[in-house]
Design brief:
tubulin binding; globular; cell projection; cilium; tubulin-glutamic acid ligase activity; alpha+beta; cytoplasm; 12 strands; disordered C terminus; eight-stranded antiparallel sheet
């Protein structure tokens, strides 16, 4: 994910695309949604250079080939990394096999807390085509909470019940609740934020989440095998910091469909059902020549997030209006719908 996003940013910069614009400090204005990340051992020297710029920062290490929180740990000293390297029976940072590689990312140490506890979001995104890109966001995602209140104290770096939201880890904690499973619906989280932070900033947060989702998919669209017989349902893991900025942590190509609670089972049943209803509308046999967006009543709990065909049509429509000298939203109608008579699609701005 990180490699593709870095390449995507550079490609947009070469094209002079305004989306790749940087601020005075060199950060991307619109594509700064992943923590600074390196691949070890390949990027070790680059990581050391970055670490020395901020020697008091905390970093999180994750094996590239594992899941469910296995093998993850936090460091705040280079000596810890060197010790890990020695303990891994490698005398130097020689290239190991792919399964031994790790990613190391700057730890989000100012997470948004609810009830004093850290949480992340698990969102489901259905992709039915990469070229052109066509994707849907599931409304019934959820938050996963840690069982122990958050602290940034360095003495607690090893306490995974504070730092890792994976249910497979949290369920072994003394404070784990079997009824709700440490999960909260996105709908409830949104209501909480609207009540405590305000509707405007909450809407912007979810707008930013949609933005990063679309661009993460665009970043890999060129390297994915675009088989019209296939679809993918991804599990997006997102952490929100205390400034209500969303950070993309990882994208799971095979998100767990195991249920830990009764509500979880119902939600995941609906997720599978709604996904298949989009892939096979009206329960008909799949037809690779059928590449349209299903009618709204067939989307279930999904919302159309981005349709590249519609987005291109909107651009052409705006260009046509511009040449004809027509104002956007003339006669009180949305510019997206005034030419075609269709309702304005969600085609990320």
């Amino acid at each position: 994910m990180v490699k593709n996003l870095k390449r995507y940013r550079k490609d947009l910069e070469k094209e002079g695309n305004p989306v790749s614009e940087r601020d005075d400090e060199g950060r991307y204005k619109y594509l700064d949604f992943i923590p600074v990340t390196f691949l070890l051992p390949a990027d070790y020297n680059l990581f050391v250079e970055e670490f020395r710029k901020n020697p008091n920062s905390t970093w999180i290490m994750k094996p590239t080939g594992k899941a469910r929180g296995i093998g993850i740990f936090l460091i705040n000293k280079l000596s810890q990394l060197k010790k890990w390297s020695r303990d891994s029976k490698t005398n130097s940072f020689a290239a190991p096999s792919g399964k031994d590689a790790y990613v190391i990312s700057r730890y989000i140490d100012n997470p948004l807390l609810i009830g004093g506890k850290k949480f992340d979001l698990r969102l489901y995104v259905l992709v039915t085509s990469y070229r052109p890109l066509k994707c849907y966001m599931y409304r019934l995602g959820f938050c996963r909470f840690c069982t122990v209140k958050y602290t940034s104290s360095t003495s607690e770096l090893d306490n995974m019940f504070i730092h890792l939201t994976n249910v497979s880890i949290q369920k072994h904690g003394d404070e784990y609740n079997n009824v709700h499973g440490g999960k909260w619906t996105i709908k409830n989280m949104r209501l909480f934020l609207e009540g405590t932070r305000g509707k405007e900033v909450t809407d912007k947060l979810f707008d930013d989440i949609n933005w990063l989702t679309v661009h993460s998919l665009k970043a890999v669209s060129g390297v994915m095998a675009n088989d019209r017989h296939c679809f993918e349902c991804y599990g997006y893991d997102i952490i929100i910091d205390n400034n209500l900025k969303p950070w993309l942590i990882e994208v799971n190509a095979s998100p767990s469909l195991t249920s830990t609670t009764a509500a979880d089972r119902i939600m995941k049943y609906n997720l599978i059902n709604d996904s298949l209803n989009i892939v096979m509308p009206s329960g008909e046999l799949p037809d690779v020549r059928w590449n349209k967006v299903p009618p709204k009543d067939a989307l279930g709990n999904y919302d159309l997030l981005y349709d590249e065909d519609l987005a291109q049509a909107d651009i052409l429509e705006r260009d046509t209006k511009s040449r004809l000298g027509l104002s956007v939203g003339s006669r009180g109608r949305d510019a997206k719908s005034s030419f075609t008579g269709r309702p304005p699609p969600t085609t990320w701005k």
